[in-house]
Amino acid sequence: MKVEKLIIYGFGRHENRTIELNKPIAVFYGMNEAGKTTIQQFILQMLFGFSARSQPHKRYEPKAGGKYGGQLHVSDPVYGQVVIERIAGKSAGDVRVWFEDGRRGGEVELTELLRGYDKASYQAIFSFSVHELQNLDQMTEQELTRTLL
């Protein structure tokens, strides 16, 4: 599955923003507090649900108010073009999935699309932040290999 486009209705500091990811690799860079981590969290929370208010993780509700959530447009070798939308609703948000063949679904279909990956597995493999990179110089060769692989 490849993320091709982000449509952010409202998430943290980002509001009414579309980000096209049409290159082989996407690198988000900018000054402190520019919103890089917010974009990373947007992708994670669109896929795996908004953090509950009782959890220690930040929810990233829109700073200016308004609609909370957005869409991920992805391409998948099995399912084709897929749109995943998550908006405010129940605690994890209400999710809708639209498949290229016209089929629609929710959490069950999203789990199918994600091939059973959970948030922790996804983060360990596909997502890292500058905070995680800051400790690389203190790792042993074995720890570094395990982290990067």
If you had to describe this structure to a student in words, what would you say it looks like?
Helices cover 27% and strands 28% of the residues. The protein has five helices and six strands, in the order ββαββββαααα. It is globular and about 50 Å long.
Determine the number of helices (DSSP H or I, runs of at least 4 residues). 5
Helix/strand-derived class? Answer: alpha+beta
What is the helix/strand order? EEHEEEEHHHH
> Roughly how much helix do the residues carry, as a percent range?
25-40%
Low-confidence stretches: none
Return Rg in Å.
16 Å
Main β sheet profile: 6 strands, antiparallel
The backbone outline, from C-alpha atoms, is: globular
What share of residues are in beta strands? 25-35%
Separation of termini? 19 Å
Extended strand count: 6
User: Average pLDDT, to the nearest integer?
Assistant: 85
Order of strands, widest sheet: 2-1-3-4-5-6
Overview features:
alpha+beta; six-stranded antiparallel sheet; 149 residues
